Amino acid sequence: MTVSVRDLTKKYGSKVAVDHLSFDVRPGVVTGFLGPNGSGKSTTMRCMLGLDRPDGGEVSFDGQRFRDLPTPLHQVGALLDASYVHPARTARNHLRWLAVSNGLPQKRADEVLEMVGLTAVAKGRPKKFSLGMKQRLGLASVLLGDPQVVILDEPANGLDPEGIRWIRDVLVHLASQGRAVLVSSHQLSEMALMADDLVVIGQGRLIEQGTVDQFVSRYALTWVRVVSPQASALAPAVEAGGGRVEWIGPDSFDAHGVESAAIGEAAARDGIVLHELSPQTGSLEDAFLKATASVQEYTTHLEASSDGGAA
Amino acid sequence: MNILRSEWLKWRTVRMHWLLVGIAMGLPIVVSILTAIFRNDGMLDKSSVYELVLGTSFVTAILSGVAAAVVTSGEYGHLTIRPTFAAMPRRGVVLAAKALLTLLIGIATQVVVLVVAITASFSILDSRGILSTQPVADAMPAMIGSVAFVAMLALVGHALGALFRSAPLSITTIILWPLLVENIIGALLVAITDNESVLDWLPFRIGFEMLSYSAFDMGDGGMFSDGPTRLQASLYFGAVSLGLTLLASLVASRRDS
User: Is the pTM of this model over 0.80?
Assistant: First the structure.
């Protein structure tokens, strides 16, 4: 099932939260949904599920509007916030009412509780749950209807490292089964590990949609790490070839603006020994920060000092 | 039907809901039983049991409204309304199911009150040798009216909860509106129109009188000499509660959740 967002617009008074946003979520891949705080990710997800009424545009699930899906839990499983549970209703009963609403057997609640490892606390009340347990309960509600589309807003919030890894594995597994998975997160290192596609937005507008590799190669810096006992002899040749040299040690430098092949050829030509010649690429975080630099809603004016404090 | 079952499952799996309904039922039952046990002034008969139970049922009505307001506004307070609408996107159907459930719980609440309070009181009076002077049939219209009123006021509580999305505001409104605000409005209307009959059409004033056993027992079927009959009063208050429910459903269907 393909999710198609077209020209989606949502305003709160004069504030435009989502601005003519269009993107697709393909089946079989994890699509990361990225954007700075206040960029409109959660609003977009609420509009996709019909919880907020968009001022324009439309969202379709294989051509069907969400509100026209007769039993949505079978098609779309969503977790927007793990706290959307009644604190005094047991975990099992929370899942049971959801299951019954879509004609699922009540025993399905126990099955998904088992899947997320909450069987032991099935009769527990969420008011006594940790945030990580609530996230697991939320994921259980997503899995109830065995949906073709999974939409998650910051699912790793509050999870410990084991939990983060678990949720990553679950999402990758769900995508490998052919489901469309849309997940927002600020944990970019996690996103780099699990996402295939990215939708990056800022101030409600689309900045980029494509694969993670495309996004990183477009926005992140690339350079070549050179380590050589004759580095000082090689550096002029690199600069002569149009590169910029940034020294990182007496025997090593980073070369910007020049390909590794050109450096290798120059070294060979001058008989220079190389201990390392490796192309380097910035992280997804670097790419994200560069791509969204102009659309940050909230920026700090504090600079980190060298001792780790703030100046 | 799945949606109604789901809403019922939601309702019955929170202890607070049972507690609120229990409190709503408790007062008329306890007061009538205690009265049947301890009152000993020679004025007590089965007729006065009806008056007592029906009279104290206004508390049941108010508390049923409060309970419904707490349940519905709680959906917004805990934001469980979002997974609800995400699982059941046809909001009109969901809200209709909630309203129907509220109505049924209101009916069940007052039926239990009437059956338990009157049966227990009569048993006590019988054991004390106090004979009946009033056939049950005479009290039946008022008892039916009380069941309808409790259900309607519960519906009003549900509507206010959906409109305000705030338990404190909904509860305050459902308590102060009939007990204070409507009296102020009535006084103003009388002052402006110089016509006391306008009071006959204040919704809660009519609604509360539906509970009164002796007030309706005036031959013409109504408490007001020139005012609406019991049927008219019931229809009028029913229309008010239904109108409020439809308004709340319309607003809740259209705005962001």
Answer: yes
- Whether B86 sits inside 8 A of A50 (CB atoms) is yes
CB atoms A90 and B9 under 8 Å: no
By residue range, what is the domain housing residue B220? 2-254
Q: In terms of DSSP bridges, do strands A252-256 and A244-249 run parallel, antiparallel, or are they unpaired? A: antiparallel
Q: Are residues A194 and A238 in the same domain?
A: no
Whether residue A171 lies inside any domain: the answer is yes
Task: List the helix and strand counts (H, then E) for chain B.
Answer: 11, 0
Per residue in A28-79, pLDDT (tens digit) is: 999 999 998 888 999 999 999 999 999 999 999 999 999 999 899 999 999 9
* Burial of residue B133, with CB atoms counted within 10 A of its CB: 0-12 exposed, 13-18 middle, 19 or more buried: exposed
Structurally, chain B folds into a number of domains equal to 1
Which of A218, A244, A267 is at the close of a domain?
A218
Q: Which of B12, B80, B254 to mutate to test the interface with A (most CBs of A within 10 A)?
A: B80
Choose among A51, A100, A103: nearest Cβ to B86.
A51
Q: Interface pTM (ipTM) of the complex?
A: 0.83
Residue to mutate among A98, A104, A149, with most B CBs inside 10 A, is A98
Domain that holds residue A198: 3-218
State both tokens at A79. Answer: 């977790």
Q: Do A101 and B79 touch (CB under 8 A)?
A: no
Clarify whether residues A24 and A105 are in a common domain: yes
Amino acid at A18: V
